[in-house]
């Protein structure tokens, strides 16, 4: 018996489009939402390029996404992955903390001593330019603690007493900084220039009062809102450095090192210059603490956040720790 073999040609194969997004990425609900690869060999950059709408929706709803288990081997690869969003990267000017620029627009996280806790804050909320998106990458996880706690500032606002919120809405916040070498940051470090004229032009452009004092010191003052409306979701948010920069938020041993609050590298007041009550500072701190969520870092983790919806901080730690930062999608107001 003779069998007839059916002739086969690649020309006869009809292309099919298969949506396997749900199969290759596992999404774990929570805060932050966790995205994990369901199989090996997934390019996070390629996946992100095709799923912007989904990622943006999760950021608008939840505020933070943790990408865990993807093959992002180093900080250069991290910067390449973030390029998938095709958003403007933000350079770190108007600085408030020491950092190293690893390469253009790629930074280390704040380089305060390991035994110090960094209070909750939204990046650059005191400034006239801040990132809507901020991403952290774990180059090296510490041996103990060192988490980056996160808190939804919509919920922080809801926890604050109505009377407190009303006062801050009415008066806003007055920020004062004394920029000098050896205590905090110098004006050269903050503004990334050696040119006083450039600094003065910046201050005038953004309505900041400034005065040069002896020993190459610069004092600046400016007002900003305490509560803002999110530009995408339309929700009210607690968005300021009012607690973070306040004298009362400093550790007692640091406060004791200054003979006068006028010598502090930064401080905050109500917008009219009156002091913020200690009771209100305690309530703000408590609201942050109640909303804080901690998770341990794992090497190659990427934490992507809506910087206006979610505040972050840093726990103390032991062992080497390197977290890298990219800021994206600047808002200028």
How would you summarize the topology of this molecule?
Layout: H1 21-24, E1 25-28, E2 33-37, H2 44-49, H3 52-62, E3 64-67, H4 75-82, E4 101-103, E5 106-108, E6 118-121, E7 129-140, E8 144-145, E9 150-152, H5 153-159, H6 162-171, E10 173-179, H7 187-191, H8 196-205, E11 209-213, E12 217-224, E13 227-229, E14 236-238, H9 252-255, E15 266-270, H10 278-291, E16 302-306, E17 310-314, E18 317-318, E19 322-332
Parallel strand pairs: 2-3
Antiparallel strand pairs: 1-2, 3-16, 4-5, 5-19, 6-17, 7-16, 7-19, 8-18, 9-17, 10-12, 10-15, 11-12, 13-14
Helix pairs in contact: 5-10
Structural overview:
It is a single chain. This protein is of the alpha+beta class and 333 residues long. The protein is 24% helix and 28% strand. The chain is built from 10 helices and 19 strands. Its cofactor is Fe(2+). It comes from Chitinophaga filiformis. GO terms for molecular function: 2-oxoglutarate-dependent dioxygenase activity.
């Amino acid at each position: 018996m003779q069998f007839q073999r059916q002739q086969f040609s690649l020309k006869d194969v009809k292309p099919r489009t298969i949506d396997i997004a749900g199969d290759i990425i596992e999404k774990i609900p929570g805060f932050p939402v966790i995205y994990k690869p369901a199989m090996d060999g997934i390019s996070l950059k390629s996946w992100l390029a095709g799923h912007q709408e989904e990622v943006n929706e999760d950021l608008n709803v939840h505020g933070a996404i943790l990408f865990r288990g993807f093959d992002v081997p180093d900080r250069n690869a991290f910067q390449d992955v973030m390029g998938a969003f095709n958003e403007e990267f933000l350079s770190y000017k108007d600085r408030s903390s020491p950092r190293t620029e690893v390469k253009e627009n790629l930074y280390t996280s704040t380089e305060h001593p390991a035994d110090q806790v960094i209070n909750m804050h939204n990046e650059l909320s005191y400034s006239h330019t801040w990132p809507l998106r901020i991403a952290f990458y774990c180059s090296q996880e510490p041996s103990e603690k060192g988490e980056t706690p996160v808190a939804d500032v919509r919920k922080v606002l809801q926890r604050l007493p109505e009377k407190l919120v009303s006062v801050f809405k009415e008066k806003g916040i007055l920020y004062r900084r004394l920029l000098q070498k050896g205590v905090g940051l110098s004006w050269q470090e903050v503004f990334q220039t050696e040119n006083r004229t450039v600094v003065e032009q910046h201050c005038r452009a953004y309505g900041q009062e400034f005065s040069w004092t002896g020993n190459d010191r610069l004092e600046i003052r400016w007002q900003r809102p305490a509560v803002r409306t999110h530009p995408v979701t339309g929700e009210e948010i607690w968005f300021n450095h009012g607690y973070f920069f306040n004298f009362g938020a400093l550790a007692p041993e640091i406060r004791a090192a200054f003979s006068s609050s006028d010598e502090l590298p930064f401080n905050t007041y109500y917008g009219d210059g009156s002091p913020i009550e200690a009771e209100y500072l305690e309530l703000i701190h408590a609201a942050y603490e109640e909303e804080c969520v901690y998770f341990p870092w794992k090497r190659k983790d990427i934490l992507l956040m809506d910087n206006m919806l979610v505040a972050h901080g840093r726990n103390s730690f032991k062992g080497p720790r390197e977290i890298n930062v990219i800021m994206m999608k600047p808002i200028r107001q």
